[in-house]
């Protein structure tokens, strides 16, 4: 990471933008359109992060972390508008993953370059080093301090899909994008106990995983979706006929308490198997915007995992994005 270099790039961009603004203002005065109209004509809309469409963002306990779309800086911002560049150019998987024959889509969604946790001041991503895939890092979001890093033990053509980060572990997968499996096989799923200073360990289990988060696993078994704790003890099982569209890394809530089945629009409390029915949604674009809050698009609704009640949002962008002064369109966070 080289935040100082990123700052220099943004300063240069701002200088260019101010020069353009002066030229624009002078031209406007000569043309007689007035100072007010001239100031509303932005020479460079990307100069203000609030005007840039943000497609990759995640929540942490101290604010929001997003990838600035032009220079790919990793930026932390809090509710007061304080901002810090904490990294640059997170690794993005190259190429296209072959869609599954059973679902028509890969087992994971795009835009998982950075993954945070709304209950902790932590964010994780894979660095880019000399144009190649670098180390996996855990970063304190509000300071940019790297708390831990580790190399990734996987072939270069394999994807890296971060499932979750918490105060002790990072769960991630290194799937072969050419397999076309509807779920992620256990042999490519890793648990990195970064707080203990350990190297990543492979699950080494010959099963297909729907998701892993904070020690809770969702596995497709003979009887449906099986939920296990970090010691692989069964917590509950729920029989669902059509939940394969659920994304790896996005099905379980950040702390593993809830699981969302996009195929049937149901939320499950993993410890008990209690099912909470949500109104059916035609789209599978969704994200956890809180520990027990699920947001879906088309139509844009925010749903409680506790009560199952969903509230329609008046429009896009998401209210939480507006609070942080960014524009995220109908993109949803990665948590």
Describe this structure in words.
With 335 residues, this protein is mainly beta. It folds into 2 domains: 1-47; 52-280, Neuraminidase. Helices cover 12% and strands 33% of the residues. The chain has helices spanning 3-31, 35-40, 319-323, and strands spanning 57-60, 63-67, 73-77, 83-88, 114-116, 122-129, 132-140, 146-150, 161-165, 170-173, 184-185, 189-192, 201-202, 208-213, 216-221, 224-228, 234-238, 258-261, 266-269, 274-277, 286-290, 293-296, 301-304, 310-312. A hairpin with a 2-residue loop joins strand 6 and strand 7. Residues 11-47 have low confidence and may be disordered.
Helix-and-strand structural type = mainly beta
CATH architecture of the largest domain: 6 Propeller
**CATH fold name of the largest domain, please?**
Neuraminidase
Instruction: List the uncertain runs.
Output: 11-47
The CATH top-level class label of the largest domain:
Mainly Beta
On the 0 to 100 scale, the average pLDDT is 81
Helical amount among residues, as a percent range?
10-25%
Q: How many domains?
A: 2
Rg calculated over all Cα atoms: 21 Å
* Biggest sheet overview: 5 strands, antiparallel
Order of strands, widest sheet: 11-14-15-16-17
Q: What is the CA-CA span between the terminal residues? A: 22 Å
Q: Strand percentage, roughly? A: 25-35%
Compute the number of strand runs: 24
Q: What's the helix count?
A: 3
What string gives the helices and strands in order?
HHEEEEEEEEEEEEEEEEEEEEEEEEH
- Approximate shape: globular
